[in-house]
Amino acid sequence: MRPKTLKIGSAVVGAIGLVLLLMMVTVEGEPGAIPLALLLLATAGYIAAWLRGRSSKG
After folding, report:
1. Confidence band (pLDDT; 50, 70, 90) for 26?
2. Better-predicted residue by pLDDT, 29 or 3
3. 3-state secondary structure the chain
């Protein structure tokens, strides 16, 4: 996959994780494991796509 596609996918997953995190904190008063994992995976995916894009340009 191209780095731009990976960045967009990571941003979508991160947005879903953020919405779930805010909802769970509002409803239950504490964050859940799934929203935190989604945010962690989205961050890792975005960094991997950024590094892949950097290495392919140089």
Report:
1. very high
2. 29
3. CCHHHHHHHHHHHHHHHHHHHHHHHHHHCCCCHHHHHHHHHHHHHHHHHHHHHHHHHC
